[in-house]
Write a structure and sequence with these properties.
The complex is a heterodimer.
Chain A lengths: L9 H28 L8 H12 L7 H33 L7 H16 L2 H12 L3 H25 L3 H9 L4 H35 L7 H10 L3 H31 L1
Helix pairs in contact in A: 3-4, 3-6, 3-8, 4-6, 5-6, 6-8, 7-8, 8-9, 8-10, 9-10
Chain B lengths: L16 H21 L4 H13 L2 H43 L7 H16 L2 H12 L3 H25 L3 H9 L4 H32 L11 H9 L3 H29 L1
The chains are: A mainly alpha, B mainly alpha.
Chain lengths: ~260, ~260
């Protein structure tokens, strides 16, 4: 019998088939509760509601623009101070978490646990925690942004530390440098560009988040967005959204430019 | 004769003493200005802190007992939303990604698809959720659509970048054998970017699970609304249980994603 070419052999074909079956079963299992909880009678009116919403939003109410400048600055402050605070917290953490620089294995696992917990919770939920403790306002927003960013920055930084070239470390060790000297003169110079890039990248994400974190009590533009929407002032909400959109685009462009500069050295 | 000592060559203005001072002073001035914008209400912090200890732990654990069913249902709904929204979003993002990759697209399609990804990424999930809840009503359907829309922007952009980085000569070889555009994509591009597609999909699933725990705050389904209530009522043991469950869920997903990566990538 002639053999024809096949992409997969029998075992691979069966495994691929099982994979797809699991995928389909997971999808149907996930769909069941969503279908049950959805009020389907609202779906047919969605296009009409959407057009209605747009007609209420346009034209945006430009007259409130001057009152938005202070919250706009607050938003940038929340992102920047939050990022700054996160840098201060993440810097020691990443040295503890990197396998090649950690003082002790147990400290490494503790650091990894802190990093993973910080990353698992969105900054909005962290904002709830801090609004409960320090009250609504910029401070809660800054703390929330910082706590969420710590894990992100420490994770990427410790991965950078683990990927350094070993030769400069060996050279300094051969000259009799102490552990602190090895870190300061051979590991740190290798990871500083990566760390700066990570900071700028996270700052850009944080601007995106701080623009709306006020919605749950974190200060900045989100606070006004919340009150505008609650009062159904859609034309004001529209202007705020446009401002947020512009802010996000600008911060992304700035961040991309800075990171390209950092990557050049 | 004056002896010359070795000096580290500077990399730019920011690496020379004057530049370093300038950067340092700028940072200090910024901190002074920005910190003044935060109004820290110490009385509120003291009150918030005190309230944490007001409610007895006995009552707190009772609350957890009463709410555990609601909590697990909410978490399950969050997970289900992410499981449905991720493949849905990716399915929509794939054609947009091809359109937004300049090496396989035409000028006008490129601009349209790029605008779609920019528009989707310019708005935070919370904002998209607010608008969709207005359109399709409260419930998990709004959440699924929100996460799917956010996935389109994220996945479309990164998928387009993967296509742009792919090796053009493979596609050329397929083209030389007389293949049309679609065949070139399926046989010349997709095999090259497939590992990246799977990796990005897993990454986005991870993000979607985290976001799905938040968007309930604005009525888009999942655990968010329950979580917000526990914070508002200072039921902090219940809040802590929910946070721990979210962290556990994200841990489990990360372990699963790691397993898939090791197997298939």
């Amino acid at each position: 019998m002639m053999k024809t070419w096949q992409k997969r052999n029998r075992g691979e074909a069966i495994r691929s088939w099982i994979g797809w079956m699991i995928f389909i079963i997971a999808l149907s299992a996930a769909w069941a509760p969503i279908a049950r909880e959805t009020q389907w009678e609202f779906l047919p009116t969605a296009p009409r509601e959407g057009i209605d919403l747009l007609s209420r939003m346009f034209p945006p109410k430009w007259s409130i623009f001057p009152t938005l400048l202070k919250p706009l600055m607050d938003t940038i402050h929340i992102a920047t101070l939050g990022t700054g605070l996160a840098v201060v917290l993440a810097f020691p953490l990443c040295w503890l978490a990197a396998g090649n620089t950690t003082p002790h294995k147990s400290l490494r696992y503790l650091a990894l646990f802190i990093i993973a917990s910080s990353r698992s919770i969105s900054s909005f939920i962290w904002a709830f925690v801090f609004v409960m403790i320090v009250g609504p306002g910029m401070l809660a927003g800054i703390l929330a942004i910082a706590v969420r960013s710590v894990g992100f920055m420490a994770k990427l930084s410790y991965e950078a530390i683990e990927e350094i070239a070993p030769e400069p470390v060996e050279a300094l060790e051969a000259m009799g440098a102490s552990r602190a000297q090895v870190r300061a003169f051979s590991i740190l110079p290798q990871v500083v560009p990566a760390m700066l890039g990570i900071c700028v990248f996270r700052w850009d994400i944080n601007v995106r988040e701080s623009a709306v974190i006020g919605y749950v009590g974190g200060g900045g533009l989100g606070l006004l967005l919340n009150s505008a929407i609650n009062a159904l002032y859609w034309r004001e909400a529209c202007l705020i959204l446009l401002l947020v959109f512009a802010l996000v685009l600008i911060s992304e462009a700035v961040s991309a430019k800075l990171r390209a500069r950092i990557a050049e050295w | 004769m004056a002896t010359r000592t070795w000096q580290r060559p500077s990399k730019g203005w920011w690496d020379r003493p004057a530049g370093r001072w300038a950067i340092g002073i700028t940072i200090v001035v910024y901190l002074v200005i920005a910190l003044q914008a935060i109004d820290i209400n110490f009385a509120r912090i003291a009150r918030g802190w005190a309230r944490l200890f007001e409610v007895g732990v006995g009552t707190q654990t009772e609350v957890v007992g009463q709410k555990i069913g609601e909590i697990l249902r909410g978490l399950g709904e969050s997970l289900a939303m992410a499981v449905i929204a991720t493949p849905l979003g990716i399915l929509l993002a794939i054609p947009i990604g091809f359109g937004a990759a300049h090496n396989v697209s035409t000028k006008w399609v490129y601009y349209i698809c790029r605008s779609i990804t920019v528009l989707s990424r310019g708005f935070h999930e919370i904002v998209i959720a607010i608008l969709l809840v207005k359109m399709v009503g409260f419930g998990p359907l709004a959440g699924v659509l929100t996460l799917a829309i956010a996935t389109v922007g994220f996945y479309g952009k990164l998928f387009a970048e993967a296509i742009e980085e792919s090796d053009g000569s493979v596609r050329e070889a397929v083209q030389a054998s007389g293949a049309g555009w679609l065949q070139q994509m399926v046989f010349g591009i997709i095999p090259q970017v497939k590992p990246r597609m799977i990796g990005l999909g897993l990454y986005r699933l991870d993000i979607n699970v985290r976001e799905s725990t938040v968007i309930g705050v604005v009525g888009a389904g999942g655990i968010g609304a329950t979580l917000e209530t526990t914070f508002d009522r200072y039921e902090y043991v219940a809040s802590a249980v929910i946070l721990a469950l979210i962290i556990g869920l994200v841990f489990a997903l990360e372990a699963g994603a790691g397993w898939i990566r090791r197997r298939y990538l």
